């Protein structure tokens, strides 16, 4: 079963949402200790949870800046992978910028949304003329009390696999 198929089923099934989270933990072992969870997913939006737990904390018992940056990358990247044909396009992070606004002392949540017109206008049309495009994706993290914790800007480079010089 492929990622898109599981995501489509996870939109309406708690079991498939659990299966998606378990599968992503196996596919991306670096993220497993953080305990990231997709809490909601739809055709155009994803919401993820960064738990307030010991492995994610810094020396002053707030969620570590790097954990917030990683959930920002994870959330935007997963949604882009879902919207694109992963057999046709390669995505790779080019740059990451983070601004931190409030100390995270409870679970944090990231939301990101893109639709099919975004994919067409920002990716497909520009790639008709260019070998690669760089897409900035802004994402905000909030805690359970709606405090704005951080704003991330993740720059994803997208190109067709046939134009990639270094293969997997």
Kindly describe this structure.
The protein has 168 residues and is α+β, with helices and mostly antiparallel strands. The protein is built from 4 helices and 6 strands; from the N terminus they run H-H-E-E-H-E-E-H-E-E. The protein has a 6-stranded antiparallel sheet with strand order 1-2-4-5-6-3. The model has no long low-confidence stretch (mean pLDDT 94).
- Morphology: globular
What's the Cα radius of gyration?
16 Å
Strand order of the largest sheet: 1-2-4-5-6-3
Sequence of secondary-structure elements: HHEEHEEHEE
Determine the mean pLDDT.
94
Describe the sheet with the most strands. 6 strands, antiparallel
Helicity, as a percent range:
25-40%
Strand content: 25-35%
- DSSP helix count? 4
The first-to-last residue Cα distance is 21 Å
Task: Give the helices and strands, then pairings.
Blueprint: H1 3-10, H2 14-27, E1 37-41, E2 45-50, H3 65-83, E3 89-100, E4 108-113, H4 116-127, E5 132-143, E6 148-160
Antiparallel strand pairs: 1-2, 2-4, 3-6, 4-5, 5-6
Helix pairs in contact: 1-2
Can you describe this structure in just a few lines?
The chain is of the alpha+beta class and 168 residues long. The chain has helices at residues 3-10, 14-27, 65-83, 116-127, and strands at 37-41, 45-50, 89-100, 108-113, 132-143, 148-160. The protein is built from four helices and six strands.
């Amino acid at each position: 079963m492929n990622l898109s198929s599981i995501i489509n089923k996870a939109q309406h099934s708690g079991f498939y949402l659990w299966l998606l989270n378990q599968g992503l933990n196996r596919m991306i072992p670096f993220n497993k200790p953080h305990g990231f969870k997709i809490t909601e997913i739809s055709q155009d939006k994803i919401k993820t949870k960064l738990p307030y737990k010991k492995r994610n904390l810094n020396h002053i018992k707030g969620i570590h800046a790097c954990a917030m940056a990683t959930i920002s990358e994870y959330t935007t990247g997963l949604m882009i992978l879902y919207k694109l044909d992963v057999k046709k396009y390669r995505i790779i992070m080019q740059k990451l910028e983070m601004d931190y606004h409030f100390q995270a002392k409870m679970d944090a949540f990231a939301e990101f949304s893109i639709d099919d017109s975004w994919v067409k206008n920002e990716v497909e049309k520009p790639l008709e003329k260019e070998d690669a495009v760089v897409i900035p994706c802004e994402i905000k993290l909030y805690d359970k009390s709606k405090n704005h914790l951080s704003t991330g800007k993740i720059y994803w480079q997208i190109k067709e696999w046939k134009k990639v010089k270094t293969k997997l």
